[in-house]
Write a structure and sequence with these properties.
Layout lengths: L1 H43 L2 H26 L1 H10 L3 H33 L7 H33 L4 H23 L9 H25 L4 H4 L9 H33 L3 H38 L2 H28 L12 H33 L4 H25 L3 H32 L1
Membrane topology: Multi-pass membrane protein
Main location: membrane
Protein name: Multidrug-efflux transporter
Length: about 450
């Protein structure tokens, strides 16, 4: 059985993995920025400042995914038009996407500066943690603008199947972020120690340089010449903007419903204590690393699905999508085993505080189980996005996380007194719900296409 299954899907495994691996690395870059911030602060600045990073990352990720979701609206459209050999339309979509993403980044910055920075005083967090969190959040808010420019050109290149370039930019950008973060936090080469504020400044510098390099590459490379000849800075029209928004806005909501659930969980945990919040940050950071790797596989599934959809090759579309499900299940099984077997070792990456390590180690066992559901739900979203099906999946994510996940977590963790474990049980059940409903939706939509 297993041999015949492997033989049937082998060509799709190799194609999907070849496309996915560079995206996995570049997607991982977003999370590695926050992981590096947590590691540097945890070792050089202490538990309270690590809790501040946890609080900010929980709030900022909600803002960040709104922007990332909007930028993802470009990828399936470009993949579909490339499948139809409509190269000029790809360039025009890029023009519109760039303007939309810049405007979105400015709106998100204003929201953080005038909303989140003021609201952070009123969500029941420790005053000492809040004092460290504010300057860090301020730098991250500014970094949204260059990040969205980088995302525009990254999603365009990946939609055309050029996935390695963003990977290399992300690798070098993250190395720079780590080096600068250590220098600023510790205070080296005559620079005064900046604490948690230092990792915010290093992130801003890193994202600015990544935006410059990626935009120059796409606009100057011969590989994109046929696509970018119709690109005009400032070119925007209603029809194309609406096409991008009709995919990007629901995708932004999909990500925001999930991430906001984890942000809400962090806030609930913050009312329990700073040690629990720091432990949550350690465990969720590790889980988010594997999630972003899974989202890279999902992005490849979006591209392959969109390309086959544009070609009207629906049989290959379904087989490629099923192969993506197989790949993500194997990958997430491996990471689940890693989390469970190394649960007492991995937290030392972040801190030497034994109180934090003990709680984080237990949370990693729970994370090991929800890995499977987290991976399959994100691949399900990616496949459906490739065929332009985004509205019903958005409703599914809302129900899974905010009708089921968070209320159940609050009931188990706060009302019934299970603490941080109970909150994580609620999140796990929300992921299971999303994974199941999205797979049912995938089966229904792809069978209709083939029929």
């Amino acid at each position: 059985m297993w041999k015949s299954l492997y033989t049937r899907y082998k060509p799709y495994y190799s194609d999907n993995l070849r496309l996915a691996m560079p995206i996995v690395v570049s997607q991982l870059g977003h999370t590695l920025v926050h992981l590096a911030d947590s590691v540097i602060v945890g070792h050089f600045a202490g538990t309270v400042q690590l809790a501040a990073v946890s609080l900010v990352n929980s709030l900022f990720m909600l803002i960040l995914v709104l922007g990332l979701g909007i930028s993802y609206g470009l990828t399936p459209l470009v993949a579909q038009e490339n499948g139809r050999k409509n190269f000029d339309e790809c360039g025009k979509l890029l023009s519109n996407s760039l303007i939309i993403n810049i405007l979105m980044s400015i709106l998100l910055y204003i929201f953080v500066h005038f909303g989140t920075l003021l609201a952070i005083d009123h969500i029941g967090q420790s005053p000492e943690v809040v004092a460290y969190a504010k300057p860090y959040l301020g730098y991250l808010a500014i970094s949204i603008v260059p990040l969205m420019i980088f995302q525009t050109f990254k999603q365009f290149a990946e939609g055309l199947g050029f996935t390695k370039q963003a990977m290399f930019v992300s690798i070098w950008g993250n190395l720079l972020n780590v080096i600068l973060g250590i220098i600023f936090v510790k205070g080296m080469f005559g620079i005064e120690p900046m604490g948690v504020k230092g990792v915010g400044l290093s992130t801003l510098i890193d994202r600015t340089l990544m935006a410059i390099v990626m935009s120059i590459y796409v606009l100057r490379s011969k590989y994109f010449a046929a696509y970018t000849r119709s690109f005009r800075l400032g070119l925007i029209d209603k029809v194309r903007s609406l096409k991008i928004a009709k995919i990007g806005a629901p995708v932004a909501l999909q990500y925001s419903f999930e991430i906001s659930a984890f942000s809400g969980a962090a806030i609930l945990i913050g009312t329990i204590g700073a040690v629990e919040q720091a432990a949550h940050q350690v465990a969720i950071n590790l889980a988010s690393v594997t999630y972003m790797m899974a989202s890279g596989i999902a992005s490849a599934a979006t591209i392959k699905t969109g390309n086959n959809f544009g070609k009207k090759n629906f049989t290959d579309l379904r087989k490629s999508a099923i192969a993506s499900y197989h790949v993500i299940l194997m990958f997430m099984c491996a990471t689940a085993l890693l989390f469970i077997l190394a649960n007492n070792i991995l937290p030392y990456i972040y801190t030497e505080d034994m109180a934090v390590i003990n709680i984080a180690a237990h949370l990693l066992i729970i994370a090991g189980f929800f890995q499977l559901f987290d991976g399959t739900q994100v691949v399900g979203l990616g496949v459906l996005r490739g065929i332009g099906d985004v509205n019903i999946p958005t409703l599914i994510t809302f129900i899974a996380y905010w009708v089921i996940g968070i209320p159940l977590g609050y009931l188990l963790g706060i009302v019934l007194g299970l603490g941080v474990d109970g909150i994580w049980y609620g999140l796990t059940f929300g992921l299971l719900t999303a994974s199941t409903l999205l797979f049912i939706r995938f089966q229904k939509k792809t069978r209709v296409l083939i029929a």
